[in-house]
Design brief:
The chain is built from 11 helices and 17 strands. It has 375 residues and is of the alpha/beta class. It is globular.
Length: 375
């Protein structure tokens, strides 16, 4: 069974919700028909002519890129320009194009988590929190004897999860009343007669973005034809927090020289730019941010990082790091983001397997390269 473009978009937005994107960004489905069937997906950092040729050669249906092809609203398309040629080729070849950019950067289990994992960091946490999920309380009334069935269905979809505990609910018993009217097909009682039924009130907590799925699961297994339930917004803080960068520990303390050799190997880069004069300096606590993360230099220092690794470091960024006593490593913009190719592939294949989409392939682009080469 294959998935549609829309089903794949839904999976990607579960990983990297679109509301996490910066206001200036443009993420989501950029080109394509949501109803189109997809067998093969190509994951890339950028959409270039080389990537489109690769997608065509590999018989790809959908391209998932990190950097959006379309940033600004289009006012015209001239086919003699680079952008016009790219869009013409995409439309002619029937590719669907999806971009997950700053929302993937900020996602709880997104690009920066994969970067920290690739570099061997443990006990990681978000470097700078930017968004906390809203919480809702769901209250539903269930006839006695069906409370476990409804509770389990909601819990399986994500309701009632608090820390390391699942199936968290509060249940009280009472009497429910209803009178089936003409045309009703009541599970209990008769049309035209007032019924009094022993019911259980189930209260549970859920993150706002899961509300639709949890309510759907609850309604599906609830025995009543018409279900009475309430949803209340809460001011409690959710445990699902999103944000930029990651900070964690190396398995063991090592010298800067040793760590840099490990970075080159793990990220497959030949050259690094560093701000430090002592290659024997000890490194244990490391902060990372894929892409251009210079804005987090002060945050990394405040959180007592020994070293901060990112890309696109400028002269004054280096000065600031030196003044703060922070080792700064510039591993390149794209080389700190390429982990998204494997990360998105791994995530999608896992989701496809769980949802029964057996005829799906996800490929990593072989065309991505650092635009500014060092020699």
């Amino acid at each position: 069974m294959t998935a549609t473009v829309q089903q794949i978009c839904n999976l990607l937005e579960k990983l990297a919700p679109r509301y996490l994107a910066e206001k200036w960004d443009n993420v989501g489905l950029q080109v394509g028909n949501p109803c189109q069937k997809v067998n093969r997906i190509l994951v890339t950092l950028d959409i270039t002519e080389e990537v489109l040729n690769e997608a065509s050669d590999k018989d790809v249906d959908m391209i998932i890129s990190h950097h959006p092809l379309i940033f600004e609203p289009l006012k015209k398309i001239h086919l003699n320009t680079w952008a016009g040629k790219i869009l013409r080729d995409i439309l002619c070849k029937g590719f669907a194009v999806y971009a997950c950019h700053t929302n993937l950067d900020a996602g709880k289990d997104g690009l920066n988590s994969w970067l920290a994992e690739r570099l061997g960091l443990v006990h990681t946490e978000i470097l700078k929190e930017t968004f906390c999920e809203d919480l809702n309380k769901l209250v539903v009334f269930v006839p006695k004897g069906f409370e476990d069935k409804v509770m389990n269905a909601m819990a399986a979809t994500g309701a009632g999860w608090i820390g390391k505990y699942s199936h968290c609910t509060f249940q009280t018993r009472g009497t429910g009343t209803f009178k089936p009217l003409s045309g009703a097909v009541p599970f209990i009682g008769d049309v035209g007669r007032l019924e009094r039924v022993e019911e259980v009130r189930i209260e549970t907590i859920m993150e706002n973005y899961k509300t639709k799925d949890i309510v759907s699961a609850m309604l599906k297994c609830h025995p009543y034809e018409e279900v009475a339930y309430d949803i209340y917004p809460l001011k409690n803080r959710s445990e699902t927090v999103h944000g930029l960068g990651r900070i964690g520990q190396l398995e063991k303390e090592e010298t800067l020289d040793s760590f840099l050799k490990s970075v080159k190997e793990r990220l497959n880069v030949k050259n690094l730019r560093i701000v430090s004069e002592n290659m024997e300096q000890k490194v244990k606590k490391v902060a990372v941010c894929g892409g251009a993360g210079a804005s987090l230099i002060h945050v990394a220092s405040t959180k007592k990082a020994d070293l901060f690794l990112t890309g696109d470091i400028k002269y004054h960024d280096a000065l600031k790091a030196r003044e703060l006593g922070l080792i700064l490593v510039d591993a390149g913009h794209s080389d700190t983001e390429k982990v998204m190719l494997e990360g998105v592939k791994r995530y999608l294949l896992k989701e496809f397997k769980e949802k029964g989409f057996r005829d799906m392939e996800v490929l990593e682009s072989e065309c991505d390269a650092e635009l500014i080469l060092k020699y």
